[in-house]
Write a structure and sequence with these properties.
Blueprint (H helix, E strand, L loop, with lengths): L15 H18 L3 E2 L5 E3 H8 L4 H5 L2 E4 L5 E4 L4 H10 L9 E10 L11 E10 L4 H17 L5 E7 L3 H16 L5 H9 L10 H7 L11 H16 L5 E2 L11 E9 L7 E7 L3 H4 L7 E7 H11 L9 E7 L2 H14 L6 E3 L6 H9 L3 E7 L1 H6 L1 E6 L5 E5 L3 H12 L2
Parallel strand pairs: 1-5, 7-8, 12-13, 12-14
Antiparallel strand pairs: 2-4, 3-4, 5-6, 6-11, 7-9, 9-10, 10-11, 14-15, 15-16
The structure holds histidyl-adenosine monophosphate (HAM).
Histidyl-adenosine monophosphate (HAM) binds next to β6, β10, β11 and α11.
Length: about 425
């Protein structure tokens, strides 16, 4: 029997797993720098939580959840997204009791039983943030700016930011009346009508060409914004301009989750085909309360690591140089091996990556492996070096040799290696 990974999951192994790690760490850096703190969350939650939080009209809840019964007969679902679980944790542990906004990040795998295709997986990876308890429009802009800095730090250029506002309750209520009127005049099948009844905005998200065509005439929420919502949306745009973050207003944007209100946004990459959303998010007034918390607002995003990697590969900007091995030590003989192991132990605390060639390979075969790339410097230590007290440090890219005494080797290497790297 040859086992294979389940259909549609993304899986990363060397060398590409380094690119994956680089994406994740690069996206997390601006998040940490803005003071967000880690939430390490369960992969599964009570099914009811997602059904309530993500929303009954969404594809995610209707068709895509990995739901099963656990041994105690409880209905469990693998998390299809991060926001609802994060808020459950905030409510359960009272994390919204301190100074607000409370700011959290998380990273890991998420599960949606979608039809697999390039950039769309049944298990995918994402990093997300949630800022809870402040309705300051500057916070909306900062959340967007954090995602933007992450994508820019990857070196991505072929992407753009789309934003819209889903307004406050009054705006959505006013729009809903006209939208429902518009939809009820259309000739639609039963299941579409049912969907529209739960959330008429869902029809903007319909993939069928004929529905798309019909919806071109539909009333747009942006035209129904209350004066407060409009002022708020304008302030968010003002802050984005201050930060020199280019954006387009897309009044027809519909995110696949029901909880959004107010500012809503998406980062779209231009070289990925159909699965072009590399990140997105927005505000969610009412969600905390919906799942049993206080009536406070929040805003956050999720960034797709798999898709950001595809985007970075498409743009040719993947940079895994931080993962290069600084030094490979090739020991010849038992005494040399002990010396090599001590040397590695002494150098690694200096943030240097040091590998030892194990298994008593010949110098030739060990050098060949180093030559294939991934190694910056090599030293060979045998009886001759141990008795002369001198060793040569070879820089692989240039072939340059530098001599050092064994007694000053640690200092020499720290100096040589630190100077060439970071
Ligand atoms: P989302 O847009 O559903 O938002 O997912 C976030 C990102 O995850 C997407 O932009 C996309 O890059 C990636 N993604 C989603 N589904 C897949 C898939 N099947 N395969 C590969 N990548 C995928 C959320 O999940 C919200 N929780 C974001 C948020 C946080 N809103 C407020 N706070």
């Amino acid at each position: 029997m040859r086992y294979q990974a389940p259909k549609g999951v993304s899986e990363y192994f060397p060398p590409r797993s380094q690119s994956f790690e680089w994406i994740r760490e690069t996206l997390l850096t601006p998040i940490r720098q803005a003071g967000y703190q880690l939430l390490e969350l369960p992969i599964f939650e009570d099914t009811e939580l997602f059904a309530r939080g993500v929303g009954a009209s969404t594809d995610v809840v209707n068709k895509e959840m990995y739901t099963f019964e656990d041994r105690g007969g409880r209905s469990i679902t693998l998390r299809p997204e991060g926001t609802v679980g994060a808020l459950r944790s905030v409510i359960e542990h009272g994390l919204d009791r301190g100074s607000l906004p409370a700011k959290f990040f998380y990273s890991g795998q998420f599960f949606r039983a979608e039809r697999p295709q390039a950039g769309r997986y049944r298990q995918f990876y994402s990093v997300g943030i949630e800022a809870i308890g402040s309705d300051d429009p500057a916070l909306d802009a900062e959340v967007i700016a954090i995602a933007y800095s992450g994508f820019r730090a990857l070196g991505l250029k072929a992407f753009h930011l789309e934003i819209t506002s889903l307004g406050d309750k009054a705006s959505r209520a006013a729009h809903r009346i006209d939208l429902v009127k518009f939809i009820s005049a259309l000739d639609l099948d039963k299941s579409t009508i049912d969907r529209a009844e739960i959330n008429p905005l869902r029809l903007f998200d319909d993939k069928r060409a004929e529905i798309k065509e019909l919806m071109l005439q539909a009333p747009i929420l942006l035209d129904y914004l209350s004066p407060e919502s409009l002022a708020n949306f304008e302030q968010v745009q003002g802050f984005l301009n201050t930060l020199e973050i280019p954006f387009r207003i897309n009044p027809r944007m519909v995110r696949g989750l029901d909880y959004y209100t107010g500012t809503t946004f998406e980062f779209v990459h231009e070289m990925l085909g159909a699965q072009s959303g590399i990140g997105g998010g927005g505000r969610y007034d009412g969600l905390m309360e919906e799942i049993g918390g206080r009536d406070i607002t929040g805003i956050g995003f999720g960034l797709g690591i798999d898709r950001a990697l595809l985007a970075a590969e498409a743009e040719g900007v993947v940079d895994t140089s931080v993962f290069l091995t600084d030094l490979l030590v090739i020991p010849m003989g038992g005494d040399a091996k002990s010396f090599a192991m001590r040397l590695a132990r002494d150098l690694r605390p200096y943030n240097l990556t040091v590998e030892i060639s194990f298994g008593d390979r010949s110098v030739k075969s060990a050098m060949k492996a180093a030559d294939k790339g991934g190694v910056k410097y090599v030293i060979v230590i045998g009886d001759a070096e141990l008795s002369s007290g001198l060793v040569e440090i070879k820089q692989m890219s240039t072939g340059t040799l530098t001599s050092s005494t064994l007694t000053s080797l640690v200092e020499t290497l720290i100096e040589t290696l630190s100077a060439t790297i970071r």
